[in-house]
Amino acid sequence: MIRSIGRAVAIGAMVAGTLFVAQSASAATVFSFTNKGSTSAAGVNSYTFASNDGSMSVKATAWHANDRNTSAVTTDTISRAKLGFWSNGGLGVIYGTDSAANGMHQIDNAGSGAGADFVMLQFDRDVTIDSLSRNVYRMSGVACCDSDAAFWADTSNIFGAPSLSANLSLTSSQFNESIFTTLTGNGSSGTTKLGSSIAASVWFISAAHNQKNDGFKISDLTVITAVPEPATWAMMVLGFGFVGAAMRRRIRVSEANFTNKIRALAEA
User: Signal peptide location in the record (predicted)?
Assistant: First the structure.
């Protein structure tokens, strides 16, 4: 009887697990960075944003990749920068001589210091970034402004699964530019699908590497998380109900057989 119950429970769990995996769905969550007020030109070290519906949070910090060879894919050292966010603009990076007046407080690869700005995003769970929306502004001293970007997801958990309170420092780190995936911009504001299905809790959004005319602010991010559909929960409950009913029936049958055996012994 114990073995039968064990088999019933195992089968029920396997069925419920299969239904859970097969019928999971994706939920889209939007972060808008254009309605959070404005920082000063001095910027901040970090800031934690809530999603539009309040269901998720992300911590943003600003950095700069020091690229001394902009004609080849190289390994860059990393410097700390300041994060800025502006009403009707979005997230930008303040590094070096950037100011609020010269337009270079965007996430850019322009200016006197070679390299590319980037923002590190620490989500409170694994997410897939579905799309990136950018606002582009003309920068002082740059003949043409483009909006080429790049991204990288920490799928290998190099940084682990940090909480929003974790203070990750990249200044002693290096990264090879080849780990980034490039997103081509059209030189104007707009939304780009990342075309990625990978999920991670830490993401980098950067200006394109080995270029000198790109700059943008992140206005919106749409992220996706896997969640079970309501039908999945209903089927799981139904499945466990069947398992429970089967267990009760087997117990009743076993009890009846035991009682019959006792009666037969008593009558013998």
Answer: 1-27
Tokens of 230: 């309501």
Residue linked to tokens 């006197």: 112
Residues 10-48 pLDDT 10s: 444 444 444 444 445 679 999 999 988 888 778 999 999
- State both tokens at 18: 């299969």
Q: What is the pLDDT of residues 110-134, one digit of tens each?
A: 876 689 999 999 999 999 999 999 9
Confidence category of residue 259, pLDDT binned at 50, 70, 90: low
pLDDT in tens, 129-142: 999 999 998 887 77
